[in-house]
Design goal:
0% strand; mainly alpha
Length: 102
Amino acid sequence: MPPEGEVMAKDLDELLGALKAQPFDASLDSLETGVWSRVEAHRRAQAEGGGLKVQLAVAVAALVMGAVVGGTMVERPVERSEMVVLSEDAVLAPSVAVEGGA
């Protein structure tokens, strides 16, 4: 019994040979012009503002989110904690201790 790979290759060769023997009923004469016409239609659709609408919506959403977050942060100032050891202005920072204090 031949290895499984040889059986598969033989079956594939037979299938490809049978496919090659069948008559080809489609014409490829207008394939390229059809593809280019669809490409041009897609480019025209994007040039007319299809992509611009999405970009504008994303920009507006980002501005609104920034305004909301900024507005809530103005109402509540952030409290500084001396537990943040690695910040530059913390009294307990190692760099302050090495340099001799603030």
